Amino acid sequence: xxxxxxxxxxxxxxxxxxxxxxxxxxxxxxxxxxxxxxxxxxxxxxxxxxxxxxxxxxxxxxxxxxxxxxxxxxxxxxxxxxxxxxxxxxxxxxxxxxxxxxxxxxxxxxxxxxxxxxxxxxxxxxxxxxxxxxxxxxxxxxxxxxxxxxxxxxxxxxxxxxxxxxxxx
Length: 169
Prior knowledge:
mainly beta; heat- and protease-stable fragment of the bacteriophage t4 short fibre, domain 3; 2 domains; three-stranded antiparallel β-sheet; Microcystin-dependent protein; Phage_tail_collar_dom; Phage_tail_collar_dom_sf
């Protein structure tokens, strides 16, 4: 099956077939690849007046269909994402305390800090517990980047430098 100029295919081989090139952002001369340039122009790099244009660079990228905020030739996404407290859903770490002395509180199933330290941290379900200020427990984390990708399998992407010139239809 003959390819269309500008067609991109996933490729599992180590040697790129003749008439194809890796989608690696390589700069090519317009004069040598006029048909391909007529189709992709400066979409992936270069500008009017340049004698060179770039191929798409799909290394470490997942192709995505154009549309709904995704413009042809524009990369997006991040390889590493640092989570911050603002990325987490709103939630609380409820901790109750009491104004009673620890000696006056019976043991129970929920945790409680008392006004005195004779027993330290107690487990208690006594009515009248008060909720502590949200600032009592500080956010944790280092803000380090982590990988954020779907399960994947790496292959190369290649683009046809020659073949059938697609007709407009």
